[in-house]
Amino acid sequence: MTRPTGPATRGRGDLSRTRILDAAIRVLVERGYANTSTLAIQAEAGVSRGRLLHHYPSRDKLLMAAVDHLARTRIEEMPAQVEWPDDPAERIGPAVDLGWSTFHQPYFVASMELWIAARTNEALRSALVPTERQLGPTVRRAVAGFLGPELTSRPRYPELFPLLLSSMRGVATTYLIDRRDPTTDPHLQLWKAMTALYLL
């Protein structure tokens, strides 16, 4: 007997994949890399063992797919979450705030779990590097959407982007152990002033 493969079947497959990916992020954030198993993800997602393994035959592939899925989905949605002012100079404050907020989402915590594990796991590191590189254009497009075309066309924007990204990532890492309110971080004013210096 041939199984149906129409839109309804594909829709159910997409739904179960999304449930599995979302569950993987929750388990990874709550338990950490060492304590995240496919059995725990299966239980969290409420799917059968066979369904999980059909979509993702290994734990590391599943975890990388989960982080990539959530990061792409959330980052691509972010520019539409703000009513951006027409004046490019007035976009800087909200753009920096929104950029900083991306480092306090579950996908960032999950990414850090994978990065730290990859330090001593060569197979994971080898697989993670190209995945992270593929995510790069999504991040660049989102940041360009935050700042708008006028500011991102300025000559010094290519210098500013990696500075902001690496600085925010580094500061956000300290929040993994020092739980405090990120909206009061003293670096926020520095990043806004630096952005204005480079782009105005």
What does this structure look like?
This protein is mainly α and 200 residues long. The chain has one domain. It has ten helices and no strands. The protein has helices at residues 7-31, 38-45, 49-55, 59-77, 88-101, 106-118, 122-147, 149-152, 157-174, 187-199. The longest helix is centred in the C-terminal third of the chain and has 26 residues, at 122-147. The protein is elongated and about 55 Å long. Mean pLDDT is 89; it is low at 1-10.
Keywords:
200 residues; 10 helices; mainly alpha
Provide a quick synopsis of the model.
74% of the residues lie in helices and 0% in strands. It is mainly α.
**Helix vs. strand class:** mainly alpha
Number of domains: 1
Number of helices: 10
In whole angstroms, the N-to-C terminal distance is: 66 Å
Number of strands: 0
Round the Cα radius of gyration to an integer and report it.
Answer: 19 Å
Helix content: over 70%
Uncertain segments of ≥5 residues (pLDDT<50)? 1-10
The geometry reads as elongated
Beta content comes to under 5%
